[in-house]
Amino acid sequence: MTDRPLKVLVAKPGLDGHDRGAKVVAHALRDAGLEVLYSGLKRTPEEVVAEAIQEDVDVIGLSILSGAHLTLTEKVLERLDAAGAGDVAVVVGGTIPAKDAEALAALGVRRVFPMGTPLPEIVAFFKSFERGAR
Question: Among 66, 88, 95, 98, which is least packed, fewest CB within 10 Å?
């Protein structure tokens, strides 16, 4: 068990050019004492995974508004496994229909935060996060 703060990469995969929500969540998590990195816009799954490994993060938070959440998340999870980093947890936030939240959970996503999730709920999840396998 490590004493360092939870390290989170907030990432924006795909062609979605809106990042206000991701930045708000990143600031809230940082204000709560977590170590937070932000990937920037329009990252590929390969770039997200490479940054996560390089920075040795505990969690990747994917912010996706484009509707490509299933495809992009599956690619990130596959690339994490292929890189031997399957212990990095993945959470997804954004425009996520309820039926797709179930599909994301079946892929191995730890938690889904659909649009409108209150910031205190997101922060509480991360504050109680337990490191380990997905």
Answer: 98
- pLDDT per residue as tens digits for the range 19-43: 898 999 999 999 999 999 999 999 9
Residue 60's region, left for phi above 0, alpha for psi from -120 to 50, else beta, is beta
Contact 96, 115 (CB under 8 A): yes
Task: Tally the C-alpha atoms within 13 A of residue 8's C-alpha that lie toward its C-beta.
Answer: 30
CB 51 within 8 A of CB 24: no
Q: Are strands 89-94 and 35-38 parallel, antiparallel or unpaired?
A: unpaired
Contacts of 87 (CB under 8 A, 6+ apart): 132, 133, 134
pLDDT digits 0-9 by tens, 98-126? 999 999 999 999 999 999 999 999 999 99
Provide the whole-model pTM: 0.92
